[in-house]
Amino acid sequence: RKEYVDLYVNYVFNESVQKPFQHFMRGFLRGCPARNWKMFLPVELQVVLQGHTTVDWHLLEKNVVYRLYNKSDKTIKDFWNVFYELPEEKKKMFLGFLSGSDRIPGYRLECFRFSIVDPQAKNPDELYPSAMTCSLIFCLPR
User: Fold this and answer.
1) Taking the model in full, what pTM does it have?
2) Which end of the chain has fewer surrounding CB within 10 Å, N or C?
3) From residue 2, how far is each of 6, 7, 9 by CA, in Å?
4) pLDDT for position 54
5) Active-site residue among 32, 111, 134, 139?
6) CATH architecture entry for 57-139
7) Which residues of this protein are catalytic (predicted)?
């Protein structure tokens, strides 16, 4: 029985996916040659490919650029007060809303910046917060 289970597991996890994996690997290495990856330690390569899984939320707040807002504005203070009360999962959902990913890209966390912008609507109560993911801009009506 053990031999059967071992052979079956080997087939499912190795042999059955070998051909599709070879196609994937050939395409991946065409765009990202292996010699470029050898400079990374395994843990560094994981961060480069997957991004940071943990976030220093206070550092994120520190790096925000405010446009048509000041850090001392009531809307901004209220936003951060509500943000810090959120559970970790909801904070990551905000990051996904803002950037399209719930992780910070592989470069240093200190370099990740986004902007909070006042859309200057005539009636801000008619607007919902929105995000421009490519530009990392969060539009927050007053």
Assistant:
1) 0.68
2) N
3) 6, 9, 10
4) 81
5) 134
6) 2-Layer Sandwich (3.30)
7) 134 (glycyl thioester intermediate)
